[in-house]
Structures are given as C-alpha cells and as structure tokens.
Amino acid sequence: MSANHIDKVRAALASDALNGRLSFLADAGPGVFYACGACILESAAGAEPGGIQIACARPTGKVAASLAGETGLFPVELKGSPGVLHLSGKGERGVTLLPMQGPDILAFVKQAPFTVLGMAVDIGGAQPFEVIDPLRGLEDLASGALRSTTPSALAAVPASMLFAAGARNDFGLEADAATVSMMRAAAPAVRGMNPVKAWDSLARLFSGRRLSDTATFLKDVGLLGELLPEVARIYDVPQNYYHHLGVWGHTLETLDRLDEMMADVPAHFRAHAGRIERHLALPVEGGIDRRSFLALAALIHDVGKADTMTVLASGRIRFQGHQEAGGRLAGAIALRMGLGTRGRRLLSGIVRDHMLLGFMIREGESTSTRLRAATELGDRCIEAVMLSIADRLATKGEASTDKGLGLFRRVALRVLGDWCWLNDFPPLVDGREVMVHGGLAPGPLVGEVLFKARVAQRESIVSSRDEALEFLAPDFKGRMDARGAEGRAL
Q1: Which tens digit of pLDDT belongs to each residue from 344-379?
Q2: Given 221, 238, 254, which residue is the final one in a domain?
C-alpha cells in the first residue's frame, strides 16, 4: 500500500500542475528545497494538492522574491509566523515557504504535529523521488490512523488540530486514544490562533458532509468549546416536551437533517433545486460560500437558549426570545472571528430568523403573511427556510406531531416559492405611480398600498399596471387618464 502511495506522490510532483512551480526550485540541486506537509499527504492519498508547502534551507525572503519573479505569484508574510511566506495569484495554486528549522530535513519533519504530515520530498534530488518518512506517516495513511507525536507539537501549531478534524472526512483517518488525549491537552492553544484563520478552518470543516460528526469530534477533543464558548454553554441545557433531546443533541440532529437536504437538494426542494444550489455556492466573503455559512448557522442556531431558559411553576421549560439572543451572539461570534459586515449580517440574520416561519404559522398563513415573511427574510430566505425545516425535523418531542410537521414543511416551501416569485416578477406599479394616481403623500401608507398590490398580483387578481391601479382605488385610472402625460412626468 505504501508503494502505491509513493507512486501517487511521484506522479503529483511530476505533473504539469506542480512542475511549473517546482522546476525553478529544483534547479538549486539536492538538499535545498523540500516539498512537505499536507501537499505530500494529499498527493499520497490521490487528491489534488490544494497548495504546495516548501521547506527551505535558504532564507525564505530571498527565495520568495526570486520565485515571484519567475512565476508572477505575489508573496505575503504570514502574521505570527516569522519567516513563513505565502505566494498566491488569482486562480493559481499557492506556494508556502517555510524556514527549515533544525540541522536537516529529518529533524524538521519530525517536528510535525501528526505523522501523516511528517513527510517530505527533496525536489532537487534524483528522480524517481523518494519520500522522506521518519514518522512512518505512509503506513498510518494506509491503515487509516491519525497519530500525533507530542502535545507540544500540537500546541506549537494549533491550526493542525483543526486539520485533524478535516482529515477524518478527507482521508478517512481516525485519531487513536493517545492522540485524542493529546489534543484535549493542547486544545486551549487554538485561542491564540489568528481569528480569521480559525474562521476559515471552521468554514472548511463545515463545507462538506458529516456535519454532526465533525461537530461531535470538535466537542470531544475540546476544540469547539475553545473556539466557540457560546456553543459549550448549551451542551447540558435541557429542553421542553416539544423536544426529544437536549439543546446539544437537538443541534446535532438539526445538522444531520440539514446535511441530508444539502446532499440531495432536488429530493427535498424539487421546484427550486437548481436555484438553491446556485445560491448556496455563492461566495459571501473570504472565499467562503453561503453553504458553509448555513451549516455554521445551524451549529450555533440555539446558542441563545443558555441565556433565555426559564422554568415555570408547572415545570415547563421555556426559551422566550432565544432567537433574538442567538442572533446577537452570532453577531458577536462573527465580529470576534474577523468577519466583515456582509458575513456578520448573514450569520446573525439566519440565526435570528430561524423561528420566523413558526411564528407566522401561529398567526395564520395567507398570501399576505407569506409575502411579508419572504420580504423580511430577503436574500437569506433560502438559508432561513432550510434551517427552519431542519430544525423542525429535529423536534420530535411528545408535543410534536406528524401533522404539524407536514404543515410546517408545506408552508415553508410556499414561502420559498413566494420569495422566488418576488425575485422573478417585478411589481406592476411603483411608489411614484401610487402617489400620483392615488393622491397620497410620501410615507408608510405608500408602502402598504404597494404591498396590497403585490399580494393581488401574486394571487393573479391583477396582471397589468392599469389593473393594479384600478384595484387599489377605482378612481386611480380616471385620474391617470385625466392627467395623461403630465401625471407621468411628475
């Protein structure tokens, strides 16, 4: 099995995709530059490397300047990592230059936090390339084992512990008991991570499948509580008779239901599947798409319950206003993680609005209430609807019924359909026309009249501008005809 992995590494390093980046460095001869770390692991596993890590026996600053001149990539020094430079370009695979600490490459790779990261290839050496593997990482890759070296190695590179969570999904690696213990001991080190990098790592972890499994692993090794202490506060919070699980168990089941929906959108949202898939693939900021934001919103959607829990004299547990409290906490999390205005608004908005459809159903469903809900949700309607359905599917207490669940799902899908309609069909009249032909002054009443026309349009009561004006006030059309061009020029 290891021989097969070595062949894959050789093929990847010799490929056109990587060779263009490495040929310049290979000219320096043996013992100077080594491809190492994650790119060797990815190559050995048969995956396309996301980037190239190079251990340098020469000063990385000079190497970066020369490499930038040869490739056109732009070098940036990574904050908090002296001597580490990352070169990237639009649409190009990045190159990270690492100063080779220690007397030789063997000493350097032995400092890796995990055995599968302790591998390297001398890119200036003779071909076929040999994999330098003193920690026997190839054997662990073949057996599916994720083994750490020492707790100090993990603490020295706290981002590597988040890598461990991703390695379970990407490479099928499972941490042994000793590694889990070492990760728990080193978990507090992630608090010192660059917040933007921590957010990027979390977003990557929640961009794929097995969402609840990832969340459970992060909790078990102590990382989730260190990065998101707001989530740690709901681990032991109980719930009322609408739920069959406590808040944390319910969160995991919500992630499972959301996972199922995102894995097969056409099966759950037949009428709007293509639109939903395109929407979730849209980037929000920092290259993170709406799908990841939705998954992370599901992870934190009930964090407000820790602060809003009350117990009535009857013993009933309530969480009055937990969605607003959760929205505020989500905004604080986003701010702490270095998100911009757009990302903060989206994350906090999804969390805040995940109960909106339930409240709407209690007040009574109609075209009017659905359109108001769709309008209020705006561009996060798809995320709010999906999270609301997942949340409701994960609510199976004795007070929850299949009939109620069916009603909720039907109404949620109708709201989604109404939102799509609002975006696809423009209003028949605008505020200016309403004011001119209705004799109204600017103000909230104009908006109410426009909304009334929108409801009538959705219900196919009106289908043209003239019909809409006449529907709103029978004398609108007469005024329009009398004013003619003069009215339209106002």
Answers
A1: 999 999 999 999 999 999 889 999 999 999 999 999
A2: 221
Same domain, 129 and 169: no
How many domains, the chain? 4
- Closest among 19, 121, 108 to 70, alpha carbons compared: 19
% helix / strand / coil in the chain, to the nearest 5? 60, 10, 30
49 CB-contact burial (10 Å; exposed 0-12 / middle 13-18 / buried 19+): buried
CA proximity to 437, closest of 395, 379, 381, 477: 477
Based on the fold, state whether residues 180 and 253 are members of the same structural domain.
Answer: no
Contact 212, 259 (CB under 8 A): yes
What is the pairing mode between strands 120-122 and 33-36? antiparallel
- Which is nearest to 487 in space by CA: 427, 439, 428, 419? 439
Which amino acid is located at 40 in the chain? I
The tally of CA atoms less than 13 A away on the side-chain side of residue 98 is: 18
Average pLDDT over residues 306-320: 89
- Domain range holding 190? 144-221
Bond preceding residue 128 cis, omega within 30 of 0: yes
DSSP state of 272: G
The pTM of this model reads 0.89
DSSP class of residue 92 equals: S
443 and 392, same domain (yes or no)? no
- 100-131 tens-digit pLDDT: 988 999 999 999 999 999 999 998 988 888 99
Q: Based on the fold, state whether residues 254 and 389 are members of the same structural domain.
A: yes
Say if residue 83 is in the same domain as residue 158.
Answer: no
Kindly report the average pLDDT of the chain as a whole number: 89
